[in-house]
Structures are given as structure tokens and as C-alpha cells.
Amino acid sequence: MAKIILQRTSEYVNRMRDYKIYLDGLKIGTIANGETKQFEINTGQHSIIAKIDWCCSPEINTTFSENETKSLKVGGFKNGNWIMPVGLILIVIVLFLDKYFDNLWALLLELPPFAILVYYLTIGRRNYLTLTEC
Q1: What is the pLDDT of residues 52-62, one digit of tens each?
Q2: Domain architecture of the chain: domains with CATH
Q3: Model-level pTM?
């Protein structure tokens, strides 16, 4: 049998939720934040995908031969570890500026992180997670 070693990055975003791992459309397991798991699979051509809620990773198609082991890395969307904290800091700044200085333009600070988040939760939902071969 072939094996997949799946390593999930440790990240702030999605920390409390497990990713579901699918092989050829069938769920083979879950993986928690920072965890590494090994799955035994049959040889041959397979498609692998990671999902969380309605979002997922791009599908990886690969062929496994007898006793072959492949390592994959799964994580959140690119730069997600800094976009979310920056967005929260900007919200605090906007609230402060709005309360004490009444500046409507401060809301413009929130547009870039908000637009990125909306993209990954709608149109880019199939790229919310990353799944790459190591």
C-alpha cells in the first residue's frame, strides 16, 4: 500500500477547526492545527482535497506506486496569518479615529483586508486552503 503523510501548518486563523481530508471524493480523515497524520491508500491515480466548511483547497491529482510515500502540506490561504491580525488592528484604529476625530476616511483602512476576506469566502473559496506536495 502507498502512504500519504499530511502536515498541517500551525496558524492562528482556523486554529480551533479541523480540516477534512478527501481522497477521490471520500472523506479519509481530519487533521488538527499543527498536526501531522499518515494515511494508507491504494496504489494508482488519486485526487486529494482538503476542506473546511464551504471552503477548500485546489485539488491535487497524483499517482501512487506500490509502497510509495508522498508528503503533503496543508494550511490556510496565503498570508492569512498576518492579514487577519492586521485587519483587527485596523478595526480598532478606525473605531478610535471615528469616535474621537470623526474621520470618515479612516474606513478606507479597512477596505483591503475586508476585500481579501470576502474574496476567499466567496469567489476564491476553492483557494481558501493551500495543499502542496513537499
Answers
A1: 999 999 999 99
A2: 1-134 (2.60.40.1120)
A3: 0.82
